[in-house]
Amino acid sequence: MAFENVDVNSLKSALNSCKNSINHTKTDSLINAISSPTIWQGKSQNNLKQALQSLRDVRYKELETQLNSYIGVVSNIEQYKNLEQQNRQYSNEINSLQSQVASASIQTYTVVGGDTLYAIARKNNTTVDALAKANDIQDINNIRVGQVFTIPNGTVNTAGLNSQIQSIQSKINQNQNEMEILKNRVANAI
Q: Which pLDDT tens digits describe the chain residue by residue (190 residues)?
C-alpha cells in the first residue's frame, strides 16, 4: 500500500471541516421545532425531545470519534510519506558514498623518474605486493617512466566510507520497519 497519491493537507482540511461542521446549536433548534407545543403536546412531546437529544449526543460523539480516527490515519500517512522521503535521501547518500568507494579502488598513478614500486606504494597508502598484484607486475624492480598503475584501495579510507554506508543502511531499515507499522495501522483503521 503506497500513499503517494494522498494529498495529506487537503485530506486533513476536509476531515477538520467535517468535524467543525458538527453543529449542536442547529440540531437543538431542529429538536425544539419538532417537539414544539404547537406541533405536539403532552408527555410524549417531552419524551420525543429527550430521545432526540440523546440520539444527537450519541451520534455526534460517534461521528466525532470516527472523524478523529480518520485524522489519526492521515497523520500516519503523513509520517509514512516523510519516512519514504527520508529513505530516498539516504539512498542518494549511499549512492554517493558507493561512488567514492568505487573511485577509490580504481585510482591510478603514472610513474615518474626516480620512482620505485616501494615509494609509489608508500605514497598511496598501499603495499608493494598489493600494487604488484593489481598491476600484474612480475618483476617489482623493473618499472618504467610513463607506466600507469592502478592503485588498489587508493588513498581514501574505504573502511570509513563502508562504515558510513552501513550506518545509513541501518537508518533505512529502521525507517522501513516504522513504515510497515504505519501501513498496518492505516490498513486496520480503514
A: 567 777 888 878 887 777 777 766 777 777 776 666 666 566 666 777 777 777 778 788 888 888 888 888 889 999 999 999 999 999 999 999 988 877 766 788 999 999 999 999 998 888 899 889 989 999 999 999 999 998 886 455 677 888 999 999 999 999 999 999 999 998 888 7
**Spatial contact of 80 and 1, defined as CB atoms under 8 Å apart:** no
Cβ contact 111:119 at 8 Å: no
Q: Which residues pair with 150 in a beta bridge?
A: 108
Radius of gyration of the chain (CA): 36
